[in-house]
Amino acid sequence: MDYSQIISEITSNVASLYGQGKVADYIPELGKVAPRQFGFCLHLNNGEVFVHGDSEVKFSIQSISKVFTLSLAFSLLGEDIWKRVGVEPSGTAFNSLMQLEYEKGIPRNPLINAGALVITDMLVSNFQDPKTEILQFLRQLSGTQNIQYNETIAASERKTGYRNFALGYFLKSFGNLQNDVEQVLDVYFHQCSVEMTCRELASAMQVFSHHGMEPFTGQRILSMSQTKRLNAVMQTCGFYDEAGEFTFAVGLPGKSGVGGGIAALLPGQYSLAVWSPELNKKGNSVLGMKALELFTTLTGRSVF
Amino acid sequence: MDYSQIISEITSNVASLYGQGKVADYIPELGKVAPRQFGFCLHLNNGEVFVHGDSEVKFSIQSISKVFTLSLAFSLLGEDIWKRVGVEPSGTAFNSLMQLEYEKGIPRNPLINAGALVITDMLVSNFQDPKTEILQFLRQLSGTQNIQYNETIAASERKTGYRNFALGYFLKSFGNLQNDVEQVLDVYFHQCSVEMTCRELASAMQVFSHHGMEPFTGQRILSMSQTKRLNAVMQTCGFYDEAGEFTFAVGLPGKSGVGGGIAALLPGQYSLAVWSPELNKKGNSVLGMKALELFTTLTGRSVF
Amino acid sequence: MDYSQIISEITSNVASLYGQGKVADYIPELGKVAPRQFGFCLHLNNGEVFVHGDSEVKFSIQSISKVFTLSLAFSLLGEDIWKRVGVEPSGTAFNSLMQLEYEKGIPRNPLINAGALVITDMLVSNFQDPKTEILQFLRQLSGTQNIQYNETIAASERKTGYRNFALGYFLKSFGNLQNDVEQVLDVYFHQCSVEMTCRELASAMQVFSHHGMEPFTGQRILSMSQTKRLNAVMQTCGFYDEAGEFTFAVGLPGKSGVGGGIAALLPGQYSLAVWSPELNKKGNSVLGMKALELFTTLTGRSVF
Amino acid sequence: MDYSQIISEITSNVASLYGQGKVADYIPELGKVAPRQFGFCLHLNNGEVFVHGDSEVKFSIQSISKVFTLSLAFSLLGEDIWKRVGVEPSGTAFNSLMQLEYEKGIPRNPLINAGALVITDMLVSNFQDPKTEILQFLRQLSGTQNIQYNETIAASERKTGYRNFALGYFLKSFGNLQNDVEQVLDVYFHQCSVEMTCRELASAMQVFSHHGMEPFTGQRILSMSQTKRLNAVMQTCGFYDEAGEFTFAVGLPGKSGVGGGIAALLPGQYSLAVWSPELNKKGNSVLGMKALELFTTLTGRSVF
Predict the structure, then answer these.
(1) Which residues are B50's β-sheet partners?
(2) Partner residue facing A231 (CB), from B232, B253, B304
(3) What proportion of chain D, given as a percentage, has pLDDT over 90?
(4) Which of A244, B83, C118, D39 could form an SS bridge with D54, CB 3.0 to 4.6 Å?
């Protein structure tokens, strides 16, 4: 298959969508990103890499970080993590807090904010220095030391992230955070602030298309069975209330972030990362979503 | 791979679960089914068929019928069907009516009761004799004329299906049913009453593992893209509020019914049907769920 | 106190509000009512009656009928009625169905539709001919034989009242309707279709300002304690999601209907009825609400 | 009426209920209160005071403080306060957070925690030293300087009041808190920690039975119309999800607190306070609720 040609065709095609979305501006730092950018990186399991457009530009991975902290917690603690967080899609965003109340503080899944906070709390309990460990893990997965927190973004989110504070205290009131809310949020805001390029992100996703083996050093991070489960969670829960829409249109497990990035994979075949900062109303990258839909259509391959 | 051996091993293994579930008894007819039964049929895309246990016993397919009426409506009306029904998972069962109210009568997806009623309403609008057409479609897909409605079951559900009447009138109040509620429910109760064996059901699911082509006559029912979407809907919405759990544990698109049947498939590879009438609290077959989890684990194959 | 003067002043004052509301048109018959009408009748406990404007014009009492069927059921069955319906305000209209689901089919209170259906079901169980008995009860309370059902309105509501059918079947699915849904709804649509004038309605409310004694024949309908409770229910639940607003602004127990009528009372002092068919967005009479607010302000008397 | 005799009879009667409830123990300090205590103070508008039992024992007024901060804000800011908080009952406790989300951060009423936080935020914005002003206001209303914060209780609540922190940050995320969440909560936890005796509390409630005039100095705190409204809010919203039950059984505007106190009044006639620390499951005093029900029954007087 001529991936280079396909990606090139996709890039031309999606350019017409510039201007339909809006760069996230709920924190000033994120709003400074230039809108008309688009990067695409395909990383095949055999090691071949195809890059296109702005795929060497760093962007804020935001919620995509939840997949990595989940993997880290899963590899450390195994099935025990599912005692404190579910694996069900969350339905509408609208219901999230109510569901949390109805379900006594057990978040529906680890990829919504409440669930990700519980996962981060696990890491805080298990590491002396959780921020360093998370960074180290991301560096290992992406095969480069060149991964950093953006302290300005992290500070910005801490200052205005009232809803995350609300979630944190709500979880705490149910006894589902073991550490100080402030401490957990500090780590959480940092993990969201990590910056990566499409190339780095696609590399970091290789572990999931390799059934849990990190291909650069050959280290097994997750068992095959765990990886199957993690991919399944991405498939059903990776896109907030567009999970169904994304599964429906794209058919790949993946995760999006409000920085405009989307990471996805086809088990046994490839991982990929796409980035374009203009978001639709549900907070997913306009060009990114379209690019992935085109990619699975043009390649004729998806999990379905 | 020695499928025969794997299925045999699964059968031995799940037998220990007899007695953990309970046969559905909300209508007397369903409650008459003998509990300790288990059937398994694997139908490979190359035509090979592996059967085990009670796979030639007829059972009530119930909600599995929703997949077939959805396919029929999708093949007739194309993308227009998504104007009246969504593709998002429904979150908790608890929320279903509220979501319907919040979303102004547009059901979250076509595999919950409300969505299936809307799909059935489409068929009622498009066919002179919808009941005959549905039966005809099922006979074509399963490659046998030996598919019938169970009029006793249909009558029983009509008599006690108050909640479905409630849903129907609720949809009608939002203008999302075009036909008489009574008429739509009559067709709906009939489609749920259809009886099939595991062998027949596995055959009928072949169209989805064949990317939309019905393999017995070679007729294309759905385009490849439509089939991808339909499989995606099954993956995210096929198991009520256990959709995530099933995706997580099994990793195949599928659909369950309160008759104890589960149908599933691996795109491009196989379809299968499993049946055992004892249900867990969420209405899914206890032995069936376990059998599928073992099957994807032992074969090492799933969509993820 | 010069009530005549006060009512006259109110009438002048509210005339400026004509055109701000909209006559209910969800059934054609109701929509035929001429909009610019206003009637007011004050009935003191000493027997004095003050009428103003269109107070001899018949209008559809609609939901105000719920107070009377509740009284009838309460007088027949006593405290037992509270096993099947609560006494709590319903919060937002938006939540009504969810609350019904959450609370297993026990409606929050007898003045929302679901609760009123349960009350009507009780009357259907207790009377050979519930429609005749309800009419008889209303004739006794209002002191006139000139009270009738409007069969055209009742038939109209039966034809389009899908949401009430949905509620009925939903209650039935929880086992909280003993009779056929169709039969209960037939009685319910009839009770809503009753037509009264402001004068007749104010008379019919006298029983509540007389602590349960119907003053025309001196018959005790409800005990003092029961009447206190019934008035309390009107105070907290009589105005759907404007219950608080009405209590706040007016401070009298009362009940409104989409026909534009509002009935209210001051225990031990008077009952009153006001009618004007133009409704605000929440379904309460625009001029009626304002008139009552002015009345308690100008008289300086309310329950608070 | 022989009030002394009635109160004495009530006291004997309710003693049989000791042991049915449980002292609040969600913070250690509150849990230290001896359970078998009961105090009752009736304060007639003519100045006569009837006390019984433990009516000179200080207890934590907790949520009853919300009525006083609301009065203070209402007297300062007038109708503007209703732009930021509603006057509708909140339905079930279960829904509170969802309603807040659905209604974009506008709490249903000022007597639920979320609404009280918004009111406290107004006081923080309007006073240099809000804690001193609140205490001063309570001292004026109760006619004694002997009113203090309990710093131990306040500190205890600050340490464990995760849910209140969650509410505060949630309101902040909607822009409905102007000040720092920490600062608002500090004032809020202090106001809840105020300790009063039944006698002092009954005195402090006199302003509401005197239509807004504080009777000790003759100063007008609220207009007649404002007082009517405030009493109405207590009637419909004063008892969380037992508001309807209390209105139904007692028929007086009032407010309860988890310290076991209940304050209530009959406009134009009297105010009263009852206290007994054993609570029912909804957080209201078991003996207190029963005592008030008996009081309105035996006196034959209520607002209805």
Answers:
(1) B42
(2) B304
(3) 81
(4) D39
Structural tokens at position D179: 């000040």
Residue C83 has which token pair? 């096993």
Which chain B residues have a beta carbon less than 8 Å from that of A297? 225
Gap between the Cα atoms of A289 and A270, Å rounded: 17
Q: Is C102 on the interface with D (CB under 8 A)?
A: yes
Alpha carbon distance A138, D66 (integer Å)? 50
Q: What distance in Å separates the CA atoms of residue C9 and residue D116, rounded to the nearest whole number?
A: 38
* Rounded Cα distance, B115 and B131, in Å: 18
For B80, residues 6+ apart whose C-beta sits below 8 A from its C-beta are none
Please tell me the predicted confidence (pLDDT) of residue D253: 95
Q: What is the pLDDT along chain C (304 residues), one digit of tens a residue?
A: 899 999 999 999 999 999 999 999 878 888 899 999 999 999 999 999 999 999 999 999 999 999 999 999 999 999 999 999 998 887 655 456 667 877 789 998 999 999 999 999 999 999 999 999 999 999 999 999 999 999 999 999 999 899 999 999 999 999 999 999 999 999 999 999 999 999 999 999 999 999 999 999 999 999 998 999 999 999 988 876 676 778 888 899 999 999 999 999 999 999 999 999 999 988 899 999 999 999 999 998 899 8
Rg (CA), chain A: 18
- Would you state the pLDDT for residue D250? 87
Strands A270-275 and A278-279: what pairing? Answer: unpaired
Domains of chain A, each with CATH number or no CATH: 3-299 (3.40.710.10)
| Interchain CB contact of A18 with D (< 8 Å) | no
What are the start-end ranges of the H helices in D44-180? 65-77, 96-102, 113-126, 130-142, 151-160, 162-173
Structural tokens at position A164: 């995350």
Mutate to test the interface with D, among A92, A98, A103 (most CBs of D within 10 A): A98
Shortest Cα distance, chain A CAs vs residue D35, angstroms: 26
Alpha-carbon torsion, ordered C249, C251, C253, C258, to 10 deg:
-10
Give dist(CA B149, CA D267) in Å, integer.
Answer: 69
Q: Is the ipTM of this complex over 0.85?
A: yes
Non-local CB neighbours of B123 within 8 Å, separated by 6+ positions:
B69, B72, B73, B76, B130, B133, B134, B187
Residue D140 has pLDDT above 70, yes or no: yes
**pLDDT tens digits for range A259-293:** 999 999 999 999 999 999 999 988 899 999 999 99
Are the C-beta atoms of residues C157 and C193 closer than 8 Å to each other?
yes
Sign of CA dihedral B12, B16, B20, B24: positive
* Average pLDDT of chain B to the nearest whole number: 93
Q: Which distant-in-sequence residues (6+ apart) come within 8 Å of B166 by Cβ?
A: C165, C166, C167, C168, C169, C170, C172, C173
Q: Which two structure tokens, joined as six digits, stand for A242?
A: 């567009």
Judge: D97–A95 Cβ closer than 8 Å, yes or no: no
Instruction: Write out the two tokens for A106.
Output: 């057990």
Contact indicator for B121, B177 with CB cutoff of 8 Å:
yes
- Indicate the Cα dihedral angle B107, B226, B120, B244, nearest 10°: -40
The torsion angles phi and psi of B195, rounded to 5 degrees, stand at -115, 135
Is C158's Cβ below 8 Å from some Cβ in B?
A: no
Quickly tell me which residue has 């429609």 as its tokens: C131
DSSP state of B283: S
- Please tell me whether residue D207 adopts helix, strand or coil conformation: helix
- DSSP, res A268: T
